[in-house]
Amino acid sequence: MKHTNENVSHLLGLEYLTRLQIEQIIDQARPMKQLFTRTVKKVPLLRGRSVALVFFEPSTRTRTSFELAAKRLSADTLSVAASTSSVQKGESLIDTAKTLEAMKTDFIVLRHAASGAPHLIAREVKCHVVNAGDGQHEHPTQGLLDTFTILEKKKRIEGLKVAILGDVAHSRVARSNLWALSKLGAHVAVCGPETLLPKGLPEIFGPNVTVTSKIDEAIKDADVINVLRIQLERQKENLMPSVREYAEIFGLNSQRLATAKRDCIVLHPGPMNRGVEITSEVADSHQSVILEQVTNGIAVRMSVLYWLTGSPMMTVQKAKTLPSESEQLL
Amino acid sequence: MTSQIFRPHTGKILIKRGRVICPRQNIDRIADVLIENGRIKQIGDIASQSGVEEISAEGKVVAPGLVDIHVHLREPGGEAKETIATGTKAAAAGGITSVVSMPNTNPPMDNITDIQFVLGRAAQDASARVYPTGTISKGREGNEMSEIGAMVRVGCVAITDDGAGVQSSQLLRRALEYTKTFDIPVMEHAEDASLFAGGVMNEGTVATRLGLKGIPRQAEYIMAARDIALAELTGGRLHLTHMSTKESVELIRRAKEKGLKVTADVTPHHLVLTEDAVAEYMANAKVNPPLRTADDVSALRQALKEGVFDCIATDHAPHTQSEKAQEFSEAPFGLIGLETALPLMVTELVRAGVLTLPEMIRRMSDVPAKIFKLPGGSLEAGANADIVIFDPEAKQTFTRFVSRSQNSPFLGWQLHGVVERTIVGGHTVYLRVADPSASDKPSTVPHR
């Protein structure tokens, strides 16, 4: 298969990828995931390369997922946390990145509280920059793993109705999902309190994206519901009156889920506030794919790291038309 | 050391055959300009005389030096960004002969000593005339009024808390009332702090796409409306600076129709750029008020054409490379504008047919000088010989600026309108040197 990475050397956001590129990364995640069923889960695809995990925000899930992804590709990993690095001594982000480049690091995986932080270093260094979540902008590997998970369950994206619920204004997960899903042809209903809905979503993502603050409209006949984490501090900014009221009016519970399609699946990027944006009953139901998202996250991140090197593709025969071996194993 | 512009210029200079444009006298014709002892002596057909320095201005425009009423010279406290020496050198390179300096220095200029400091530094090493402003409030904290009268006595030409808006309506009311005695403008950066609330660019689709916190346009025009209401209440002189929204334009238009003492300026960057310049996270286009939409740009241009805006001012706001190389949300607001103002206006307004060349010069010299009661802005006999000579047809590409800082979104832009020479009080403070190896790089030479 022809490699689509062309001159894409960084993964800054799904906005910057074509539909074909997104599909190719996801297709390649399938054989990566197959590895997980083996006793030896490691392949030598990135042997000798090094991946720096630079996390300026606390994150357990994404950091360990990237770390396992890199290790399963036989890459060396190093973790740089803001609290222990020279950032504490006032070093700028660009200087930190250039220092890692001078150490001949091949990848910089960056998590940062500022939107656009990965763009800033991608302009300055030659290593592959992978955005592991930047401010309120994008979290592209989350968007890819969500799409991968939906594809595994639903076998298609085109024409599905996907509801994204929650604090869309401040959510990088929402933006990356919106890019991937709109490029792949889903109908996306975005829903949250008006105070947490940003301006101009249909202008940005196209007519297949609709915005509503009525949760019943958003959920009705949905094939997929992706529930975003609510930051409890939004209460202090007058964006919602209370967590209790949020749960009552905008939270996903069993009654509401029952109005979606019967085989509707529920995603959540984690960590969950049980009883706020999602009830435990829903989170632990058979419709929930939250733990599969975690497994898929490693496969997708392996695929991203490998894809960025521009090496020949690992593929699964007829991945798009038939369920792959990996899916049959689920 | 004394700055050359503070030394008397003796002798005569004859500027030959330029297109002389002096809006205040309604002059626009090919003529000669004679300077004697640092002042304009005569405009007309003047024969060459032996012993008189002659400057050929054939094919060039000869106009009053530009007057920029909104400039951050950063001294004291921000010398890494700019100083009075470097900022006025940049002004001279841009054809600007008078700058009104902003008081949001560190410490803020809220007393006589600070005003005297600026004037003293300017006397030592300025390449353009510097007119300082003082803060409205002590410490620029928005609470107690500064010693405005005392500052005016030593040379403060206006008061402003620029950098942020005055949040207290009561304070602004008192400032507008109190300054009536001194007949100086109260220059207001109209911004509602609670709506601004940590925003970093215009609120809208680009901010949504980039995941950046937006600043709603209402943050500006709510305060512009309040400010105008207070000008009406007090009869004081209100000057609204760097207006960026079409709604502000309508408010100013109505205030003027009512006959209120309200004036306003607009910046070249708000007349030229939209919020799109910020993508993807270009900190050099991070400015406050933020770049708005194409609708606003066309409304601002129309307002300038119709005279709703009295003048053009740069809001020259230098910042160091390392400050601007931070994460977008951390980088400071502001961009430099002294050297690009004239070329931008020639290229984007005059060549686009929005303004004629005399109208442009009027809005960049004659009118701002009048509002701030400065001596420049005219080539009348007896006026200071503050002159810009520029070529409106020639082009240059901006690759490096004279300013100590380089934070411009116009780096790499090719623009028409090249300043050939800038004269202050008869002294040449900037002379473009045609360098065949780097033909579009301006450089300065010391006078004589």
Q: What's the total count of β strands of chain A?
A: 9
Helical content of chain B stands at 25-40%
Number of structural domains of chain B:
1
Secondary-structure-based class of chain B equals alpha/beta
- What is the average of the pLDDT values of chain B? 95
The average pLDDT value of chain A, as a whole number, equals 91
Oligomer: heterodimer
What's the tally of helices of chain A?
13
Short description:
The complex is a heterodimer of chains A (330) and B (448). With 330 residues, chain A is an alpha/beta fold.
Write the layout of secondary structure elements.
The complex is a heterodimer of chains A (330) and B (448).
Chain A: H1 19-35, E1 50-55, H2 61-72, E2 76-81, H3 93-102, E3 107-112, H4 117-122, E4 128-134, H5 140-154, E5 161-165, H6 172-183, E6 187-191, H7 201-205, E7 209-212, H8 215-219, E8 224-227, H9 243-250, H10 254-257, E9 265-267, H11 280-283, H12 290-308, H13 325-328
Parallel strand pairs in A: 1-2, 1-3, 3-4, 5-6, 5-8, 6-7, 8-9
Chain B: E1 12-22, E2 27-36, E3 39-44, E4 53-56, E5 61-64, E6 66-71, H1 84-93, E7 96-101, H2 112-125, E8 129-132, H3 148-153, E9 159-160, H4 169-178, E10 186-188, H5 193-196, E11 201-202, H6 205-210, E12 214-215, H7 218-234, E13 238-240, H8 246-257, E14 262-266, H9 268-272, H10 294-306, E15 311-312, H11 321-324, H12 341-350, H13 357-371, E16 387-397, E17 414-424, E18 427-431
Helix pairs in contact in B: 4-7, 7-8
